[in-house]
Amino acid sequence: MNQVIRKHIFRRFKKAETKVHELNYLFWECTTRCNLSCLHCGSDCSKDNANKDMPLTDFLSALDTLKSKSENFIVVLSGGEPLLRNDIEICGREIRSRGVRWSMVTNGYLYNEQKHISLLNAGLGALTISLDGLENTHNWLRNKNDSFSKVDRAIGLAASSSRLNFDVVTCVNSRNWHELPALYDYLILKNVKAWRLFTIVPIGRAKDNQELFLTDLQFKELMDFISEKRKLKVLDVKFSCEGYVGSYESKVRDQAFFCRAGINIGSVLIDGSISACPNIDRSFSQGNIYQDNFAEVWETKYQAFRDRSWTKRGQCAGCADYTDCRGNGLHNWHENKENVLICHNEKIERATKCNLHI
Amino acid sequence: MKRNWTRKLIGGLSFTSAMFVFQACYGTPQDFGLDILVEGQVKSKVTGLPIKGIKVSVEENMQYDFTNDEGKFSFYTEPVNSLKIKFEDVDLDQHGTFVNKDTIPAVTDKKVYLNIVMDSK
Questions:
Q1: Which among B25, B76, B77 has the least Cβ separation from residue A242?
Q2: Do A157 and A113 form a contact (C-beta atoms < 8 A)?
Q3: Does residue B13 sit within a domain?
Q4: Can you give the residue range of the structural domain that contains B46?
Q5: Partner residue opposite A13 with nearest CB, options B10, B35, B76
Q6: Do the Cβ atoms of A265 and B27 come within 8 Å?
Q7: Is A238 in contact with A227 (CB distance < 8 Å)?
């Protein structure tokens, strides 16, 4: 009964959040250049990317259109690999000089002691580093032989700072899912406090590589693994907010599934496009900072993000969980948007049925 | 204002402490940490001119910065109790030789500005 009431209130909360649509979280895709060539890259980034890095002043012009900012407003620098920008510290300082906090997502390859210090000096407050397995598996997925030793150094530095709100993210796939217990021990040894687990969406470079995806049974085991480790309260392990996971909702995350793309999360992408999370299909773009006023676009557009009723199609059309799921994470709608790319809950249900038959 | 109040009430009723704390799928955690901006300028007591290349650091913290051509420095750091800022001449006699100095500034705001004068050796 308690669960039913909580679900009902949470639905009301989501409605209220959507109505208010306070911008809390702004991605800046500041570069699409990358020093790695990861097998699972959803952006298909490369060293010689066709897009030039966005000039800082262009981004600041968009940021400055926001006359009032929410209490916890943060700019998240993403890429590509943000550390390839030589002016990353200047970017951070300029953002801080406007009273705004900033953070960064990195593959950690260039994150050495000097960089760690210069970023802290520039007011970096939160950081996410990607680690995709033990040494061989990480190097395989990251497509570079010394990438594990570099990320190991980066994790050690970030974990040593009490100032940084820092977590490690892992893209779980069929090659590394059996390594999760060993990775858990490794992270505790490195004094990491938070670990977020993802699965890989079949977009970009990942689309045609079946080895990157989990079977239904593996996915359910991943949910069980997270659920068990959360009970221990040693490391803050959680499943990312990538999708609705039905009966595991209260067991694998701090809060129930709520895709906040376009509701609390916005973005300025490499070509000036205005959107939400950078992994969302580019056709969802709501405007462009080179033609439009960013704040105005945030206030008046984003209909497809804030009214998700259009997602009640394909396999979502007759789904009993639709009210709580609302079409899963928006990054699961690509190309013709006729059907959701991945239904996490369906994977769990299939695995459960399969277990019952064994 | 009213809308915010309603949101917070519903958020609180759904018994989820982390209701307003979220991170995007491929983003970072939020930053709730406190920090202060330490800025200032270092000059020579003898000449009154700015000193370049002085290492400015925080005791028991790996952060540091070097003064620039104008003797200026600037960095964000954690606002610990008795924040001790150290000024060290580490470049031998490249810009003159100066006696090292420490200071514990009174931190009353989110930023502190230090005018430092260093004695010649």
A1: B25
A2: yes
A3: no
A4: 36-118
A5: B10
A6: yes
A7: no
